[in-house]
Amino acid sequence: MNCLTRRNACRTVATATVLLLGVALVPPIANAAGIGGKATGSSSVTAGTWGTTASVTSMVFTTNAFQTSTITNSGTVAFSAESYSVTVSKPASGAPTFKVFQCATAWASNLCSGGAGTQVGGTLAANSVTTITSSTALAAAGTLYLQVEPAAVTASTTVTLSPKVTSPAQLRAAVKTNQ
User: Fold this and answer.
1) Taking residues 128-139, what's their average pLDDT?
2) Are the C-beta atoms of 105 and 70 separated by less than 8 Å?
3) Phi and psi at residue 54, in whole multiples of 5°?
4) Which range, of 43-52, 55-64, 122-131, averages the lowest pLDDT?
5) 32 in the Ramachandran plot: left (φ > 0), alpha (ψ -120 to 50) or beta?
6) pTM, whole model, 2 decimals?
7) Can you tell me whether residue 46 is helix, strand or coil?
8) Cα 132 from Cα 112, distance rounded (Å)
9) pLDDT band at 6, cuts 50/70/90?
10) What pLDDT is attached to residue 26?
11) Residues 6+ apart with CB under 8 A from 134
12) What are phi and psi of 169, to 5 degrees?
């Protein structure tokens, strides 16, 4: 074919050739130069702190009145769950039992936002040490509210709460954004 006689056909072939070369050559050149629209990879938490604190860790019960504690995530890494070691002392007499309830807001008149809250763990007996785990996420600097509810208390009984992380699976890495 003579390009002088068929200008449109030759221009079309030339344009297609340039476009094909661009599609074939530009991505490798752009990647080599650090330019591109594709990103892949993985990351992990390399630094961070975790831990929780309780406003009240030791509660003495002489009646069946409920008592509360505030649990705060004092670290920089969020939790997907929170665990508690709960120790119930042996009273001089009787066989009291205790239940632990959790709420995302502060307790008001023994209610959690109008309801009873969520029980974490089972019924705890006197003279026992039990680890209970809640499945509620706890953000960094976030707070959970616990209420310990006694039954059948006839003599002074102490309940001690120790918040803890029982597994690396309870840690939730902070969300990273590209800002």
Assistant:
1) 91
2) no
3) -110, 135
4) 43-52
5) alpha
6) 0.70
7) coil
8) 20
9) low
10) 47
11) 81, 82, 83, 84, 102, 118, 120, 144
12) -65, -20
Rounded-to-integer distance, Cα 155 and Cα 158, Å? 10
Domain boundaries, the chain: 1-41, 52-172
Query: Is 2.60.120 the CATH classification of the domain at 52-172?
Result: yes
Length of the chain: 179
pLDDT digits (tens, 9 = 90+) for 22-33: 444 445 554 555
In this structure, are residues 166 and 133 in contact, taking their beta carbons and an 8 Å threshold? Answer: yes
Half-sphere exposure of 111 (CA within 13 A, CB side): 5
**In the block, residue with structure tokens 């039992």:** 97
CA distance 130 to 170: 18
Instruction: Give residues with Cβ within 8 angstroms of 29, minimum separation 6.
Output: none
Nearest-Å Rg of the Cα atoms of the chain is 31
Dist. CA 77–CA 140, nearest whole Å: 5
Q: What is the pLDDT of residues 50-72, one digit of tens each?
A: 888 999 999 999 999 999 999 99
Looking up tokens 């670290």 gives 75
